[in-house]
Amino acid sequence: MKALLLAAGPFAIAAALSMDPAAAQAVAPPATAASAATAPAKPAAAPAQRVEITGGRIADDEQRRQSTAAKIVIGREEIDKFGDATVGEVLRRLPGITTPGAPGRGGPPRMRGLGNGYTQLLIDGQRIPPGFSLESLTPEQIERIEILRAPTAETGARAIAGTINIITREGFKRRVNDVRLGFGYENGQFTPGVFWTHNDSAGDLTYNLSGAVFRPWRDSESRTDTVATDLGTGALRRDSTETSHSQDRRTGVNLTSRLQWRLGDGGDMLLLMPTVFHNEGGTTRQFELVQRMVLPGTDDYDRGTVLANSRTTSARLNAQWRQRLGVGRIELNGGIGQLESHSDSHREEFKGSGAGPLRTVDDRSDVRDRSANVTVKLSSLLGGEGSEHSLVTGFEAEALRRTEGRTTLQDGLPVLTDFGDNLQASSTRYAAYAQDEWSLDKHWAFHAGLRWEGITTRGQGENGVTPENASSVWTPLVHLLWKPDPTRRDQVRLSLTRSYRPPSLGTLIARPSLNQRDPAPGANTPTTPDSAGNPDLKPELARGIDLAFERYLDGGGVLSANVFHRRIQNLMRRVIGLEPVSWAAVPRWVARQQNIGDATTQGIELEAKFRLDQAIADAAPVEIKSNLSLYRSRVEGVPGPDNRLDSQAKATANLGADYRLRGTPLTLGGNLNWVPGYRTQLSVDQAVTVSRKRIVDAYALWTFSPSVALRVLANNLAPEDYFSTNTIDGEGLRAVAATASPTYINWQVRLELKL
């Protein structure tokens, strides 16, 4: 039985969940990575090791077990294990999380395969401000990652797929002064970096400082073949190939801090968290266009260059004051922030051997986002001191103001004159909630909440028109936790929730962005559309159910199986259509977000963490981590097959192992990440396909002494080209654009010092 479990990993969880308690205890994994790297520790020594490593905090798996709402906790040791260079590399190994695009070029993380906006991203419990990239945050600045598969009233219901909450480094009594020096190497380019973390205390003040300076340099290539055929006769109407080579040179500087003052002995405290992120650099792109057959009215350049520069600075100050009130507590949280972004690009297109450019495009943008938020939360024990019945109520207010100055010149002349050079937009959000958490007895725990949230967005449209969008949503939420036998470590979770996805500020604002492949004022094609906002969008609403079985193994391991279902109304999707526009004399293809109807999605998520020597006598102490998720979805009103939700693959899986060699200070580890290719029918007229992703990572850590270690990491060890296609029918033509992008091995070498 044990051997089958180890061989199959998550694929055998269904069988493992039903095995007898004695066998479950025999497969117990270690509580921490430190114990995983050594022989099994004596039971009496385990608590002392846990206190020393975590500073008294509850172990990650125990936090997960005690939470009434489903939560996965990934602690500092797990984050530290691979020594990843980016947050995205850490997240894509976690259960049910994927990143879009080619390996090493992915965007924001996504839960359950659902596209952008379905996953709520938080930093220290606060929503990430618009324009902020998670890649600005380094893994060294993260204390832990919390994954919530179902929303709660307190964390917010803008989480149809789930919530990822990133907690930045915390200050503890134990002094830490860590420095990491290293560099990465990918496709001929080096990326040096210096990372520093310092924990200390002075009287009632406990503080943490984390900083990073890094210079990511990347070279990328791609090839896009575009063909258009007549739907009636099958005759070829367009045939072209564009190749592109880009060099991206950037420099990033980050500083996060956490200053916590203890105010008395009752848990009262004041917390300040100032952060600064700065990123700047430039991109040079050379492209060539070979047109074997040209559609009438489209451009005829054959080569060109783009020079682009940008810089972004984000500064924020969050504060929290916590005061005990009898058997309750009041918390006041607030924050102010500002993000400034500047970008400019110069594009030149050439034809043949002509000395001068055929066309030039200059685009300049200056954006300033200012935000402020405040939250008041009251917590009280309804049964008095020592009670396990609590009520949490809260009120939230948030305001965002965006000022954008943008100019676009084509051959020195302005375009989009009807929209002006300056854009003003604002968004205000109010929310109120109540949440009841009650441990009824040793078998049952109950968690119910009700949240109201309203958002109003105002923008600036064509000819000075100011569109406005207002929406409000009530979201009831119920979570149940059942322990069949309190003396064992098995438990069942059930969640009944309502969640939603509001339109983003960018999708509502009606200012267009013109496609440079087929520029105005001429015609474009369905595969080269302009884009614009839609101020009439409605939020998506989802009713959901989650059912999970969890078995917590002695020592901290876990086997779990989770099934979920979501019913989505007012689904938003990018729709491409031919429209009369003010910026061209002929109709042009324009992509806008639109509400297209209803959809459903469901899936099963399996996870297994255990240690080999606890299942097989005399085996090496290899720590196994594995997960497998299977998904299905259907969009009503879109013909099948493959009428699934946008960007949702059919599955995702990870299989990883870590092992410290006996008698040597060498630790080895690896992970296989797999996402199958898939096709999505977006509408009656449009379909996209993407190829599979298979990412192999490995690392080696040599510990010279308790204060000096050397780490070597390889990401994407078996690189494969990444393919995608976009097929769209319109105006009697079928246009197909197929893109191929090579991927590369990314090497990391890092010297880790504990000073």
Task: Tell me about this structure.
The protein has about 750 residues and is mostly beta strands. The chain has a single domain (about 1-755), classed as Maltoporin, Chain A. Helix content is about 5%, strand content about 55%. It has nine helices and 36 strands. The strands form three sheets. The protein has a 22-stranded antiparallel β-barrel. It has a five-stranded mixed sheet with strand order 1-6-7-4-5. The chain is globular, with a radius of gyration of 27 Å. Mean pLDDT is about 85; it is low at about 1-55.
Offer a few descriptive terms.
Maltoporin, Chain A
Mean pLDDT: 86
Tally of strands: 36
Strand content: over 45%
State the major sheet. 22 strands, antiparallel, barrel
Regions with little confidence, pLDDT below 50 for 5+ residues: 1-56
Say which CATH homologous superfamily is assigned: TonB-dependent receptor, beta-barrel domain
CATH architecture term: Beta Barrel
Class based on secondary structure composition and strand pairing: mainly beta
Counting structural domains, the number is 1
Number of helices: 9
CATH level 3 topology: Maltoporin, Chain A
Condensed summary:
This protein is mainly beta.
Question: What order do the helices and strands come in, and which of them pair?
Answer:
Layout (H helix, E strand, L loop, with lengths): L1 H7 L4 H4 L4 H6 L6 H4 L9 H9 L5 H7 L4 E4 L1 H5 L6 H5 L5 E2 L11 E2 L7 E5 L2 E2 L14 E7 L13 E7 L7 E11 L2 E14 L2 E10 L2 E14 L5 E27 L6 E25 L9 E23 L2 E23 L8 E23 L7 E22 L2 E2 L7 E18 L4 E15 L9 E15 L7 E12 L3 H4 L21 E2 L8 E13 L5 E22 L8 E24 L11 E13 L15 E10 L5 E10 L2 E4 L4 E5 L2 E13 L2 E8 L6 E9 L2 E9 L4 E9 L1
